Each structure stands twice: as C-alpha cells, then as structure tokens.
Input
Amino acid sequence: MKRRVFLGYGAGVLSLPGAKGGPNERPTLGAVGVGGKGWADSLGASRHGEIVAFCDVDELGKNRKGGFIEAAKKWPRAKRYTDWREMLEKEKLDGVTVSTPDHMHAPVTMTALKLGISPYTQKPLTRTVHEARSLTLAAREAKVATQMGNQNHSGVNYKGLVDLVRTGLLGKIKRAYTWSNRPIWPQGHQRPNGSGKIPDGLHWDLWLGVAPERPFQEKIYHPFAWRGWYDFGAGALGDMGCHIIDPVVWALELGPARSVKHEGPRPMKETFPEWERIHYDFAGTKHTSGKNFQMIWYDGKKKPTAEEAGFPPKTKIPDNGVILVGEKASLITKHGSGHLPDFYVDGKKLTYPLEKPEGDDHYGQWVSAIRGEGTPTSNFDYSGPMTETVLLGTIACRFPGQDLRWDSANLKFSNSPEANTLIRQAYRKGWEIEGL
Output
C-alpha cells in the first residue's frame, strides 16, 4: 500500500508527494461520507478535482442531503464502497474528503496519511487531544496537502477580524468572548434502554467503527444526534469552536492554553451538558495587553452581554460570534455571515476602516496544494494545535469548577490524573489504527 514517494521541483514550485504534473490536471479524489455535510464537501471538492470513488455506511441515506444514491447519480463512474478501509486500499487517490461523525475523523485521516493521500477533514479535526497531536505529527512526516474543514477561515469576516488586529487599530487586545447557540441536538440526557431495528441500508457496525459497541436506537445517534455523545462527538464546543475560536487563535497568534475551567451544569454520564461557559487562559503575545490572556467560550444559548464588551446597551449580540475588546477599540463579528466585523470606538459604531479582504475557496486551496501549488491556510500544522485547544474544553466540562492546568509539551494535565484519562481513549478491538 505504499504510495507515490516523489519530491520534485518545477517552475520554482515545490511539488508534494503525489502532486499532479501540471496546473490543468484534475487530481483523483475520494469521499468518505457523502450525506449531509459530506455532500457539501464532496461537491465542493469536485469543483477542482475528479471524484473517482466514494464511501458511505448508509446506502439509502434518508433524511439527509445527498447520500449514497445521489452520489451515484452525480458521479456514475465513481467506485462505490460502504467500508472506507477497502476504498483507501484499492483506489489510487490523490486526495480524500473525510466527512464522518467526529469519532471517525482521526482513523480515516491517519490511514490516508500513511498511504500518502492528502486529506480534507471536517472539523473538529479529531475527537480527542491525542488524536489531534498524532495527526499533526503524521502530516508533517507524510508531506501531503492537508486542510481542516473550517471553511470560514477562508472567508471575509474572519480575515477582516485578523486584519483589524494586525494593523493595530484596536490597540492591544485585552480579552475575547466566543459563543454559539448550539447545541441544536439533544444533550444532557441518559442513554435509553433496549435497542431498535437497524434501518435498511445502514451498516451499523461500520458506523460505530472505533467506538465501543452499543445497540442501534432510532433518532438517538444516526443521522445527526451523535454530536452530543462522548463516544461519537465533541458537543457544541467541538462542533463550533473550530470555527469561532479560530480567528482569535489566528489573529493573536496564541500558543497552547495554559489552563481551562468549566462553569456550568454537571454533564450526564455519556453526554455533554446542556450549556457551558469555558474559561481559557493563555500566555500573552505581542497582540495582547498583558502577560496573561483570557478567552471565554459560551454555548447552549448563553452569550456575553453588550455591557461586558463595552458596547452600547442596545447592541445586538448575534447567535454565534466573536468579540475582541481592545485598548483603543473593540469589534464584534457574526459567524458565517460573510460581512465585515462591526467596529466600535468609545461605544460608537464606525465604518469598517480597511479595504475589504478577498475571500478564498477552501476546497480550491486544498486541491491546488495537491498539485503542488501553495499551502492550505488551515493545514494540520495550524488546525491540529488549534483543535487541541478547543478539545481541552470538552474535557474540562466533565470537571466543573476545576482549574485544569495544561502541560502541552507533555500532553497532560499537571494537576488532574482523572482528566488525563480522557486525553487518549482506546479503540474497539479489531479497529486499531497504526499511529493512533
């Protein structure tokens, strides 16, 4: 299963292993997951490359956009699989989109990296901190194009936020607020008793993958409610944090968090809490006002008030967004909107003071890099460590009120053996993955 190992130079452009020979060639792509978000990812990637194979564990794909049947119609010549391991072994792929529940992101992505295949992996990059670190290191060794699917990293609103910080118009940043209205799926509940009939076309054992075995229950896990379960998802923070925390880490050039603390209800045995407030502490940078920097994350319809941020009392706080409070001015930006940040000085809203940045095609960056052209902006060297930061909060929520001190270099909490048991978790017997 060894893939192309070639490092060449041409026209001053570095060609990565597996890079296509010229700018007009379309790389061969596979897709793991073609329903829901997987449909959007495979369509996005297909604008730039050729889908030659796809995989989905649900052959009927009811109640989701796209799916196995629609993918077969869209790409009739593509090979079809229900087991991603078989597809990656048999097909000659330059790249693969990974759009599965969170617990399968790392297994599929690591396997692709080991085969020299360039992965585009949905956010959060992984479900556990150990997986995030492992993929970061494996990607460096594989030397292939990588991209995490936090597409707003290439959008106008977050680029505008970064520009405002980097030009110094806000002054040094004193603190940050980040929030989401998620979850929009059930959390804070117990596992139901009994089992249900597995729907026709759903390969339940393949859906479980590396997760512990459990019986199927209708509308409890598949196709969408899995996000709230520890075994499969990363809760509201894992879902949205890699979008919304991203521009704060990016603009301020933050390193790993030094500590993390959860404020909110105790979670249930197997699911994330209904809401949470996560306090992150970082070392200050050249963009911050002190040696320490605090960022707060809110979810479950909790969010900061206008007064906290120093905005006029009637300032509308969107459902998902970012606030940066600076020494000279502050900004607020709505997640996923494409419009520029709102900019305030002394409580007065001003016109965005810079030239509007250009957005970019997140999928196009990745496919271009497969051909040896450029580097994706959310490559694993960036998105891996950022995912680690996000996922620290998914551990902290299980230890309410505890200030967990993080030792990034040694990948452990220095003051909680219990929390350390959640950094890495074993895979189901028979589903062990090399490198994880």
